[in-house]
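In the design runs reported in the main text, the only information available to the sequence generator was the tokenized backbone. The following block is the verbatim input for one such run; it is reproduced so that readers can re-run the procedure and compare outputs position by position.
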């Protein structure tokens, strides 16, 4: 297995760690991109795009980034707040009147971004591919009653975050969220990240080595998330991950309909380089013809703690700013508590560390453990060890 790309000699330890992941941690295909002080110091890729190991990972390989894409949606949303097209504390229903139903009239964009809206799952059972229908998903969420009083608690909106926040983006810009991401953020970077991959780019997409069976029955859900004895909680969790059945990507991630759809919480596709460039821009200079996406005041607010403590969905502590995951003891993002970004399923990660001036992204097509992944931790240890 050959690792290709660029690595500054001062960060040789990162290249060694990346290569070692293939040797002793069973990596399949991956890319890691790191910028320090705005300078690209690591841009490496290697391994295979497919489980059969017949198609090498290339410089421009696209891969499903899972929840790493939530971080880019946060950047897009904050950029629209900075422009005045959206407001953090205006009721969602002011732009999306249907959303005010069932006790949600006071929910704001801030509530959505902080995972406090009480809408982590659709209550009504939906057809297995309903996540491909944007209007249907948004309509279901707009009409239903929250699982808890909005603002009174938080719970990770694993798959619904993208529809809720993305619909606010659509109403602010007048275009679908995938197009807004390109026009407001991605094109200015010259890199590639998509909510909805154009069909002509599908041949460059990596095949994710993940379960390929749709989980449609309660017995299957119980295998994934054993019952706790609290039927209401269990119903919410099962529907969070499996309603509709393909919403988490299980059984659907490598299909053309999945890649074509916009599911911003879960199916953003891109390169590690694109994610690191976006996070680097947040820490540095203006982008896109001199326009700054997010000013320092708004960014400081966005990376401040909004939700902290026991998570209603995860049943463990979590910590969020405005759309960003924040570092916590049980799930650090490097050694510095100032870091912000987002993990994805199986250890993928994109983040910025203002203290160290670091922007980082690691993407892979072989998910590991859901909470702590040795491949990711090895890369972070090598990075921060190289900084001295």
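Verbatim output:
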């Amino acid at each position: 297995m050959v690792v290709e790309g660029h690595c500054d000699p001062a960060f040789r330890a990162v290249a060694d760690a990346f290569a070692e992941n293939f040797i002793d941690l069973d990596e399949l295909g991956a890319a890691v991109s790191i910028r320090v002080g705005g300078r690209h110091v690591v841009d490496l890729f290697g391994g295979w795009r497919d489980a059969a190991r017949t198609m090498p990972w290339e410089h421009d390989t696209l891969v499903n980034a899972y929840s790493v894409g939530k971080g880019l949606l946060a950047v897009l949303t904050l950029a629209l707040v900075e422009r005045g097209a959206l407001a953090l504390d205006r009721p969602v229903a002011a732009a999306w009147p249907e959303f005010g139903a069932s006790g949600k009239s006071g929910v704001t964009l801030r509530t959505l971004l902080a995972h406090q809206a009480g809408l982590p799952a659709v209550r009504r059972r939906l057809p297995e591919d309903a996540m491909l229908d944007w209007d249907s998903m948004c309509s279901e969420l707009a009409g239903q009653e929250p699982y808890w009083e909005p603002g009174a608690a938080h719970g990770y909106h694993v798959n619904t975050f993208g529809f809720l926040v993305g619909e606010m983006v659509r109403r602010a810009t007048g275009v679908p969220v995938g197009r807004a991401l390109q026009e407001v953020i991605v094109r200015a970077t010259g890199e590639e990240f998509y909510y909805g991959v154009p069909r002509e780019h599908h041949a460059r997409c990596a095949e994710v080595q993940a379960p390929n069976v749709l989980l449609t029955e309660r017995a299957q859900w119980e295998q994934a998330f054993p019952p706790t004895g609290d039927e209401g909680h269990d119903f919410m969790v099962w529907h969070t991950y499996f309603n509709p059945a393909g919403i988490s990507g299980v059984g659907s991630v490598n299909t053309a309909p999945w890649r074509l759809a916009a599911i911003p919480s879960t199916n953003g596709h891109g390169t590690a380089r694109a994610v690191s460039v976006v996070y680097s821009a947040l820490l540095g200079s203006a982008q896109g013809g001199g326009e700054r996406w997010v000013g320092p005041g708004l960014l400081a607010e966005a990376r401040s703690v909004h939700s902290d403590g026991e998570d209603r969905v995860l049943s463990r502590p979590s910590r969020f700013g405005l759309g960003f995951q924040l570092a916590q003891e049980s799930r650090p993002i490097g050694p510095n508590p100032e870091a912000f970004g987002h993990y994805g399923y199986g250890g993928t990660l994109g983040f910025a560390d203002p203290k160290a001036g670091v922007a980082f992204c690691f993407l892979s097509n072989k998910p590991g453990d859901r909470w702590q992944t040795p491949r990711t931790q090895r890369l972070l240890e090598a990075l921060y060890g190289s900084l001295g």
